[in-house]
Amino acid sequence: MSERSTAGPAPPAHASLGDSLATGWDDPDGALPPPDWGRPRGPRRLATVWAFALFLVALAMGNAWLSDRLTGEAFLAWATVFTAISLQALPFLVFGIALSAALTAFVPASFYQRVMPRNPAAAVPVAGAAGMVLPGCECASVPVASGLIKRGVAPAAALTFLLAAPAINPVVLAATAVAFAGQPEMVVGRLLASFGAAVVVGWIWARLGRTDWLRPPRTHHDPDAPKWQVFRESMLHDLMHAGGFLVVGAIAAATVNVIVPREWVAAVADMPVVSALVLALFAVVLSVCSEADAFVAVSLTEFSPTAKLAFLVVGPMVDLKLIALQGGTFGWAFVRRFVPLTLGVALVFSFAIGGLLL
To answer: Which residues cross the membrane (predicted)?
Structure first.
């Protein structure tokens, strides 16, 4: 009679290598496991091989394309711009995320309901003003707006807060003042254009918005969790996401400054309307956190102040990560209506305020 292993019961046929280390291999004949045991089979294995192959091809193509462009002085210039943007923006990013996490953890959502008028038209400007004193980035504004709607605040007011808070809160305005040192008109222009756009979008939504365009908000956190745990988890989540987008934005801005031919930039920058539209699209794609976007905007030296203002106004209201958050929270029927409305109003106010002040 053969001896059985004492390592434990035999893993199932689909067990992974990690499962084998935890439970051992048990065979009545003492045989070794088959050579392919624990390895992914079928489509998963094939997809992994192809993904790795495509990754290697992308690396090779990127190296071939960048080798002639990011060499010597060009690479040093790229590294300088990237480092300057990242180091200047990081303190504001961390401070803003910490304040946002504190508001999420320690300020009950019912507080916002008590200070909001019940008339939606009157609640909209109040919500916009609340965004001026309650700091928060785009990542935090969506769940806060969802919580306000859940507790009975008019959707138009909650959406106004969603747009205003990441655009004109004190941390963002302070970061803008540091980035555009000696240019107070840029800070004032950002405040007026962002506040005006948020309020007008809120009023339009109060007049034309429908309840069935908004998916009922869902609870993502344990309501019984300790407040300090909520604070820690919120800060770590926002820091990981916003920090990554900051790095991506700094890389993109540095790359644009070094790789894009200056004659191309000059050709676009000399056309006021086109340059503002280009930077607005740039803001949507980059998805830089609002506490850091001013440092990216100031590095785009070839563009006009109005184009930079469009970048600062559009970015905190419409970007890719914000669209994804809104779609996951409120549904894509909402996104299809809200995003084009917000983008159009933000551009109108950017051109209007930029033409008057800058």
So the answer is: 46-66, 78-107, 156-181, 187-206, 239-260, 272-297, 309-332, 338-357
- Tokens at 130, concatenated: 């609340």
Q: What is the Cα–Cα distance from 117 to 97, expressed in whole angstroms?
A: 28
The encoded tokens of residue 249 equal 């934005």
How many degrees, rounded to 5, is the angle at CA 129 between CA 123 and CA 133? 135
Token pair listed for 348:
């109108």
pLDDT tens-digit profile of 308-331?
999 999 999 998 778 877 887 788
22, two tokens: 């935890």
Task: Determine the Cα–Cα distance for residues 193 and 164; give it in Å rounded to an integer.
Answer: 10
Residue 286 tokens read as 């980059």
pLDDT at 199: 96
For residue 63, the tally of other CB atoms under 10 A from its CB is 9
SS (H, E, C) 136-163: CCHHHHHHHHHHHHHCCCCHHHHHHHHH
Domain map (residue ranges) of the chain: 74-357
Tokens of 53: 């192959």
C-alpha 116 chain-centroid distance: 27
Q: What is the DSSP secondary structure assignment for residue 290, as one 8-state letter?
A: T
* 43-77 pLDDT, tens digit each: 544 555 566 566 556 656 655 565 555 556 777 77
Which amino acid appears at position 352 of this protein? Answer: A
| Cα torsion angle, 43, 47, 49, 50, sign | positive
Distance CA 196, CA 189 (A): 10
- What's the confidence (pLDDT) of residue 50? 61
Phi and psi at 27, nearest 5°, equal: -135, 135
Reported pTM: 0.67
Rounded to 5°, angle at Cα 143 from 134 and 297: 60
Angle, nearest 10°, between helix axes 305-314 and 272-286? 30
Highest mean pLDDT among 107-116, 264-273, 285-294, 343-352: 343-352
φ, ψ for residue 260 (rounded to 5)? -65, 125
| pLDDT given for residue 5 in this prediction | 45
